[in-house]
Amino acid sequence: MGDISMKRKIIVNRAVYHILVFGLGILMVYPLLWMFFSSLKPTNTIFTTAQQLIPSQWTLENYRNGWRGFGKYGFDIFFRNSLFISLTATLGTVLSSAIVAYGFARMQFFGRRVLFGAMLASLMLPAQVLMIPQYLWYQTLGWVGSYLPLIVPYYFAIQGFFVFLMVNFIGGLPRELDEAAKIDGCSIYGIFTHIILPLMVPVLITGMIFSFIWRWDDFLSALLYVKSSDKYPVSLALKLFSDPGSSSDYGAMFAMSSLSILPVMLIFIFLQKYLVEGISTSGLKG
Amino acid sequence: MEHLTTAGRPVKKKKSLKQVLNQENVAGLICTLPFSLGFFLFLIVPMLISAYYSMCDFDILSPPKWIGFANYVKIFTNDPKFVKSIGVTFYFAFVSVPLRLIFALAVAMVLKRSTKLTPFYRAAYYLPSIIGGSVAVAILWKRMFAINGTVNMLLKSIGINSSFAWLGNTGTAIWTLIILAVWQFGSSMLIFLASLKQIPAGLYEAAHVDGASRTAQFFKITLPLLTPTIFFNLVMQMINGFLAFTQCYIITQGKPLNSTLFYVVYMYQQSFEFYNTGYASAMAWVMLVLIGLFTAFLFLTKKLWVYDGGY
């Protein structure tokens, strides 16, 4: 008898656990689900049926309307711009961070401590505090209005997060590999390109994913530096699209919002392993 | 003479360029050169330029006029909006960051138990922090808390007839932003989960044998061993909290009555809407110093509450 009631207690416990955790999980993703399903409702019914998640009348009209964008430019252009900026900046971040991380992780040299300290400091210095200073500098350089401020700095490993992540990763690779290659006549740079870089593939993927997501979501620098609407990335276009006056078509707004997070969602669904790894091993917020 | 010396002792063989480049001392500098250049060009130079402009009356369009420390004097003595924005920003950071960390830790403790559904749960809790910073979510949030928005509609459907202006009320507007920030606790949760896994099970077994309750185990083992993780996340997230921009800029624009006027939003307005760029440069420096002081203060308290021994 005691055994059965014990078993029952465990089952009840488990059920309660799952109901609570599942319920909270639904609550967490509910706003996103709501936005997605709203984008499939006829636009004039979105807020009159806001309490109802699943549309009673399905439509793709909002996607057609939203895709046209505003003015002369459709979201096809904005998506292309975002892809271009995010991919080129990401390439720069990952390549430059990898070589810099190699220098920090494998070499003793004059000034290493100071530079490493500077890297850690840059890790703690978010873009917002540099917003005005950098704007003034790019203004001096004549970069305002072009994509240069959104791309060039990333080729200089300025984001400490990625360097830090990769220093840790290289630190975990056995030094014997370097030694063996050295004996075989490999130069320090050869060791990087032939030994270290190929082994870094997992951390490079993690880096690419984070960099891509951050660049894709970046709103501040687009707001500051992109001036003409044919050059808008999705984030900025979406903000202007949603401004009162320019559109009160909530259906189209939610449709384009849903589309704008689609690339990140796909990464999340298919490459979650790398995201989790990046966050857990660096101990840093992603 | 020359002949003598060359003949007298072996001349140190001059290294070829290739060999010089292959010395660790040189190669290290070369490998880290992108960072050295980037740090100088995109951090140091802009900061120095803005230090100069912070001493000027400058509106981007016309040439700067040197006014010494007047901008700084005005910030600290004659700008009620500055005081207001500091207050709002600190309130936001000091409420949202601890709440987020507490949530993250609580959920991590719950998800530590591994079931078949755990990967699914983890994904659901993590998702908001991956996309929470996007413009799309900011737009959504703005509509959710609008007068005829989702929240009021949901309330109506359960019988509460609410036409409350969540974003139009000084008491609640800041809370919509705090909720948005806390909602993104997922990545902190993952960090806690990773640290929890590193705590040796033997510690809990020993405590269990000694008759320690679950609560006691949490406060005597888990929490102390997590303090390094908590500390690190606290520092980073506080800094980010002080500098929050996008969500506030899109959702509330500092309204109503400046009750959500985040520091960076105010700085942005000063520079790009009121064209007081010199003044905004001074504000950037003030923020940098404040953050530096705050971080230093946190590090000073570190030895009081952060465990730094082994397991």
Search tags:
heterodimer; A: 286 residues; mainly alpha; MetI-like fold; 2 domains; 14 helices; B: 311 residues; two-stranded antiparallel sheet; 16 helices; globular
Account of the 3D structure:
The complex is a heterodimer of chains A (286) and B (311). In chain A, 71% of the residues lie in helices and 0% in strands. With 286 residues, chain A is mainly α. Chain A has two domains: 2-62, no CATH class; 65-280, MetI-like (MetI-like fold), CATH 1.10.3720.10. In chain A, helix 1 packs across helix 13 (250-270), helix 4 (112-123) packs across helix 7 (160-171) and helix 10 (201-217) crosses helix 14. Helices cover 71% and strands 1% of the residues of chain B. Chain B has helices at residues 2-8, 17-21, 24-31, 33-53, 70-77, 80-111, 118-131, 135-144, 150-157, 173-183, 186-198, 201-209, 214-242, 246-251, 263-273, 277-305, and strands spanning 56-57, 65-66. The radius of gyration of chain B is 27 Å and the shape is globular. The N and C termini of chain B lie far apart (69 Å). Classes of the chains: A mainly alpha (286), B mainly alpha (311). At the A-B interface, helix 1, helix 3, helix 4, helix 5 and helix 9 of A face helix 3, helix 4, helix 6, helix 7 and helix 8 of B.
